[in-house]
Amino acid sequence: MTDTTSSQIDHLFNEDRRFAPSDAFAADAVATKELYAEAEADREAFWAEQARALHWHKPFTEVLDWSTPPFAKWFDDGELNVAYNCLDRHVEAGNGDRVALLWEGEPGDERKVTYAELTDEVKRLANVLGDLGIGHGDRVAIYMPMIPEAIAAMLAVARIGAIHSVVFGGFSADSLRSRIDDAGAKLVITADGGYRKGKVSPLKPAVDMALADRNGSGVQETVEHVLVVQRGKNAVEWTEGRDVWWHDVVPQASGEHEAQPFPAENPLFILYTSGTTGKPKGILHTSGGYLTQAAFTHKVVHDIHPETDVFWCTADIGWVTGHSYVTYGPLANGTTQVLYEGTPDTPHPGRWWELVEKYGVTILYTAPTAIRSFMKLGRAIPKKFDLSSLRLLGSVGEPINPEAWMWYRKIIGGKTTPIVDTWWQTETGAMMISALPGVTETKPGSAQVPLPGIAIDVVDEDGTHVGNGNGGLLVITKPWPSMLRGIWGDPERFVETYWEKFQKQGYYFAGDGARLDDDGDVWFLGRVDDVMNVSGHRLSTTEIESALVANEAVAEAAVVGASDETTGQAVAAFVIIKQSYLAANSPDGLAQTLRLWVGEQIGPIARPRDVYIVEELPKTRSGKIMRRLLRDVAEGREVGDTTTLADTAVMSVISAQVR
Ligand code: WT7
């Protein structure tokens, strides 16, 4: 268990509020309690049944091959096309006129894209990708704003059996470059820019920077083309022969494209996420198992009635939530969904609620950090809008504190909507732990129970079940369909990071602390490794430390996640500055420079909230930085046990410098 959390735990477990679904909700709910019994009776048969809800060009006969753990194969002899499942089959079933995307740009422009239109666009784009030399197994980087073309890009790559690597548009040119290199991408799909906070935020210039100056870097350029959507109309430079405008090729391309089947284990995407080292991990997901679990969980946890619901997941496609619950889950289920380009507070702080009213959103899926920032702004803002269309709310990305849960239900959900708190990870591909709306009595603050077909436990360091009322480490005890299949190019790190700790038992180690309450419900306590969770986004302390020491003024740096009222955790950096720079600059100036520096190196989300300039860092005799003590300082607590420090006086010096 992490030391930040142990002090916050006790009050949580006195939670005795329970919210049963209304009879009306329960009567219409997609999920039933029989799902648990079915999965319990025969887990593999249960998943096979869910998989058969998809269209298989060649039906599978094998369900799970776990003969060489931790490398799983699901539905291995089956063949399918992921994009066909998300598009063509709905059109063929007569639902081509159903709206897939209710898109709203930040400036207020709108586009409604039907399933027939999206299918047509994806077919054309698939042909263009072929013309650009992209085929089965090639990697394509996608660096785009939240516009319909971004979804089309993912699906077109999937359609031809290539592999996408979506890089969040808020990441820097450097971050983009390292991801392009790691995956060996042949094509980058981007836009000139997209709207954020009232102005155009450029993207193509970052791609140009990422691809420039390879000379002497020792890195072989793999990118042959850059395909560019015109969105922001900002000025962009053009490299003839490499760069291609989307509007010059996609509308002109043939609309004929027959989806070919690919094996169930064909790679679908790589998505980079932070780990405990400086180098992001390329999490690899494949096709059949991933789509099965993304679609199934979306349907039962979000209670999707495709004919009537308007779903809105606010995540960016740059994160796994955007992959599974904007692109793949909702489209596989033929859902109508809202897609919004911009930030929640532009041009006014009620923007999200205005969209809920305008589009009649029935299901909203968002992150606790957003809920807490709305809470801070006050109920008067959402109260100005008619939110009565909402019938179900979801939460994801970090633990939701009971206070925010109650506010969400009362102010946004009109005191009636069920709330599902869904726990999962980039690595799990889809939801793992959540209430089933209409079935489970919900409990503010707890993610509650594993979904049907999912097996988890909370164990101690030896892998022994801790029992109700106790805390420990969250593990997944049986393989699941949407599990990661590896880390791109690094099978050893895959085994080491997730499977070595509980090798004897064969458990997957999630890196989260958790506690079972007296009912056996799961409460998450935060990460137990050097990974922070800022606004529901995963950041690595080591990665930010490396960025800091890459600045010429910095001698040494230590980064911790300090608890923050709105963002869950915030980045706090303790930095030792080189003497020559100390003399020439003010500490405030240095701190500000370093904040911006980290933003440029990694992306604005990684920018430290606090940069403390200190003379020393607390280290053990073996030289390991004691982050626990720095966290005490950053959170304004009395500093804990310092007896293992090499120099016990160092903490009083640091505390004095920080105040
Ligand atoms: C980490 C995964 C899941 C998609 C978004 C984040 C934390 C996620 C919850 C939740 C408590 C949660 C965990 C997890 N987390 N959802 N409902 N309750 N903690 O994906 O970047 O891969 O981060 O987010 O710490 O390990 P990610």
TrEMBL record:
Keywords of the record, alphabetical order, are:
Acetylation, ATP-binding, Ligase, Magnesium, Metal-binding, Nucleotide-binding
Annotated GO MF terms: ligase activity
UniProt binding sites for Mg(2+): V549, V554
- The AMP-dependent synthetase/ligase domain extends over 93-488
Which cofactors must be present for this protein to function?
Answer: Mg(2+)
Q: What InterPro entries does the record point to?
A: Ac_CoA_lig, ACAS_N, AMP-bd_C, AMP-bd_C_sf, AMP-binding_CS, AMP-dep_synth/lig_dom, ANL_N_sf
Q: Which Gene3D superfamilies match?
A: 3.30.300.30, N-terminal domain of ligase-like (3.40.50.12780)
Residues carrying N6-acetyllysine:
K624
Catalysed reaction(s) here are: acetate + ATP + CoA = acetyl-CoA + AMP + diphosphate
Role, per record: Catalyzes the conversion of acetate into acetyl-CoA (AcCoA), an essential intermediate at the junction of anabolic and catabolic pathways. AcsA undergoes a two-step reaction. In the first half reaction, AcsA combines acetate with ATP to form acetyl-adenylate (AcAMP) intermediate. In the second half reaction, it can then transfer the acetyl group from AcAMP to the sulfhydryl group of CoA, forming the product AcCoA.
| Name used for this protein in its record | Acetyl-coenzyme A synthetase
Q: Which organism is it from?
A: Microbacterium aoyamense
